[in-house]
Amino acid sequence: MQRPDEKKRQKITATAAKLFATRPFHEVRLDDVAAAAQVGKGTLYIYFKSKEDLYRSLIHDGVMQIMEQLSQSITNDLSPGDALEKTIRLMVTFAYAHPYLFELMRAIDSFKGRESLLPARRQLIGFIEQVLRRGADQQSWTDPHPQLTAVFIPGLIRSAILYGPKDIKEKALADQILRLFRHGLQKETFR
Amino acid sequence: MQRPDEKKRQKITATAAKLFATRPFHEVRLDDVAAAAQVGKGTLYIYFKSKEDLYRSLIHDGVMQIMEQLSQSITNDLSPGDALEKTIRLMVTFAYAHPYLFELMRAIDSFKGRESLLPARRQLIGFIEQVLRRGADQQSWTDPHPQLTAVFIPGLIRSAILYGPKDIKEKALADQILRLFRHGLQKETFR
Amino acid sequence: MQRPDEKKRQKITATAAKLFATRPFHEVRLDDVAAAAQVGKGTLYIYFKSKEDLYRSLIHDGVMQIMEQLSQSITNDLSPGDALEKTIRLMVTFAYAHPYLFELMRAIDSFKGRESLLPARRQLIGFIEQVLRRGADQQSWTDPHPQLTAVFIPGLIRSAILYGPKDIKEKALADQILRLFRHGLQKETFR
Amino acid sequence: MQRPDEKKRQKITATAAKLFATRPFHEVRLDDVAAAAQVGKGTLYIYFKSKEDLYRSLIHDGVMQIMEQLSQSITNDLSPGDALEKTIRLMVTFAYAHPYLFELMRAIDSFKGRESLLPARRQLIGFIEQVLRRGADQQSWTDPHPQLTAVFIPGLIRSAILYGPKDIKEKALADQILRLFRHGLQKETFR
DNA sequence: CATGAATGAGGCTTCATTCAT
DNA sequence: TATGAATGAAGCCTCATTCAT
Questions:
Q1: Domain check: are B131 and B63 in the same one?
Q2: What is the CATH number of the domain that holds C154?
Q3: How confident is the model over D159-176, as pLDDT tens digits?
Q4: Do A159 and B151 touch (CB under 8 A)?
Q5: Residue B125 CB: number of other CB atoms within 10 A?
Q6: How far apart are the first and last CA of chain C?
Q7: Chain A contact for B139, CB < 8 A?
Q8: Residue C99: its chain D contacts at CB < 8 A?
C-alpha cells in the first residue's frame, strides 16, 4: 500500500471516512471530500480509481486492520472461552476507536458487484466462526449454528454503536455482549 | 373520474421496496421503479413527494406494521418469557415475510433529517425495551442494560438476514436468538 | 365568442389575467389557474386549446376591447387634436380599468409564432397612426414619423403603469402624456 | 491549470443575450445556450448559479453599462438641455449597440423576487430623474412629474425598438424623442 | 360539459471524471 | 505529483395535456 505520499493518502482516507459515515454514499460529493481533506479534486484520482474505490478502500482497510489485530491476539493456545472474550473485547475496542467503520459497513454489500467487496468481511466472519467452532469442538459450549452466531457478533456491535444509548461505555458494551453469550438473560442463580 | 388509489400506492410501494432492497439508494432509478410498477413516472409524484420520501415511506410503513402486530400480540397477561419469545418469533417471521425491510433499513439513518425518521424505529425499540424491563422487574431474568439489549434484537435479525448463511430457516433463526437470550452458549459447565 | 358557458369562460379569463400579470408565463401553472378559477384542470381545455392559447386570448380580448372603444369614440368629425386627446385619455382610462393588460403584453411578441399574435396590436397601432396622420395632414401638427409616434403612446402608458410612481392618478398620467404631445417640456411661455 | 476566465463568462453572456432576446425565457434551453457559446452545459453553472441568475445577470450588466456611460458623460457643467439631449442620444445609441437589452428587459420585472433586480433599473430611472429635475429647477423647462417623465424615456426607446418601424434609424429615433420633449407635436399654431 | 388522476416528454441541474497547466 | 476548470451523461422532477369516469 505504498503510494506516492502515504501521509496524503491517509488524510484523504480519514476525511472520507468521516463524511461517508455522516451521510449516505450518494450525498457525499468528491468536491466535499477534496475540500475537507485540503487537496485538489484531481488529487483524489491519483490515490483512488473512483468514488466507489475510495469508499471500498475505507471499509477494506478498516476490516483488514481488525483482522490483523485479531490474528495477532487470538492464538490457539488460548482457551475457547478466552478466545471468544478477547475477540469480542477487541472488536468492541476497535469499534470505539474507529467510530465510523461500523457505520460505513452500512451499505457496503449493496453495490453492483456485491461479490467483489465481501472478501474482507467474509474473512472476518470466517475468523470469528473458527473461534466459535473451536469452542464447540472442544465442548466448551454448544452452538448448532456457529456461522450464524459469527455474524451476530458484528451485528450486535453495530446495532449498539448506531442505535444504542449514547452514553454506553466500551466496557459495558463488551460486558453485555459477553454476558449474553455466556448465559443469556437467565438469572444469576443459573450460573 | 378516478380517485387516488390506495391499491396503486401499494403497488408502487411493493415494487420500490424490491428495488431499493436490491441496490443502494443512489442506484435505484425512479424510471425503473415506475416501469416496474407499471405506472407513469409522474404518477410516483402523486403518491410521494420525492425519491427520498418514497424510500422513507417504505421503512416507515414496514416498521409501523411490525409495531402493530407486536402491540396486538404482546399483551400484559403473557409471562415475560412468553412475551420475549413471541416478540422475537414475530419479528423473525416478519423479517422472512418482508425480506426487504431489514435490508432497507440499511441506510435509513444516514439521511439528512436523521431525526425525522427515527420515531418509528424508536417506538419499536421502546416497545422491545418494555418487554425486557417487565422481565427484569418480575425477576424472570437479569439485564443491566435493557435499552441496549433492545437494540440487539433487530440487530441480530438484520445481521442474520443480510449476512447469515443463505439457507438458514426462519425457525432456526428464531430458535438461535432465543437460545442466546435464554442461556447464551453455555453447556451446563460453560466456563 | 359564444361558448358553452360564457360565465365560466370569463371567470377563467379574469383569473388567468391576474396570474399571468403577476408572474412570467413559465411560472404560471395551469394547476394554479384552474384552482384559482375554481374549475377542474380539464375544464380549461374545453375553453382554450392550450396554455399559450389561453394567454393569447387574454391579450387579444383586451386589445380588441380597446379597439372597439376607440372606433366608437374616435370619429372623423372630431378635430385631430380632440381625436388625439380622446385616444390618449381613453387608453389611459382603459389601462387603469384593466391593470393587467399592459403588463400582459410584456412578452406577447416573443412567442415562436411571433407573427401570429401581432394582428391585434398592429390594428391598434394602425388606428393610432391614422389619428396622428390626420393631424399632420390637416396641418394641426407636424410629425415626420407618425408610425413611430403611434408606438410611443402605448409605450408611455405601459412604462408609467409598470414603473411609474405608484400614486400617480389616471388624470395626471393622461395630462402628462398630453402635455408632452402638445408642447413637450418647454416653458409655458411657448404656448 | 486554468483560472476562471472572464472571457468565457462574456462569451456566455453575449450568446445568452442573443437567445433570450429572440425567444421568451421559458423557450430558451440552456442546452442551446451552452452549444451556442461553445461550452459544456456544466460550464454555465460555474459562472452562473441558475438559468434565472444568468438571465438576471444579462439585464443587470446591461443596465449597469448604460449607467456608467451616463455618469461619465452627463456632468453638471452641461446645461440641462444639453444634459437631456445627451442622455437621450446616449441611451438610444446604446439601444442600437445592444439591440438585445431592451428586448430582454421585457419580462424582467415579473420574476418572483421582483424587488431583487429593480435596483439597477431604479438607479437608471433615478439618474434620468435628476437630469429632469435640474432642468425644472433651473427653469429650463416645466415638468410637474419628473419621476413620471423619467420612466417615459426608456419606455419610448423600448417601444420604438420593439414595435416601431423596422427601418427607423438611430438618429431619427433620438431626434423624434428629442422633438417630443422639446416641443411636442406642435407647430407654431398647434391647437 | 366537468373533472382530476395519470402520463411522459423534456428541462434544469448535479457531479464523477478528465486533462491542460 | 497536484490542481480545479471544464465537461456531459444522466437523474430527478415538473407540468402541459389527455382521457376515463
A1: yes
A2: 1.10.357.10
A3: 998 889 989 999 999 999
A4: yes
A5: 19
A6: 48
A7: yes
A8: none
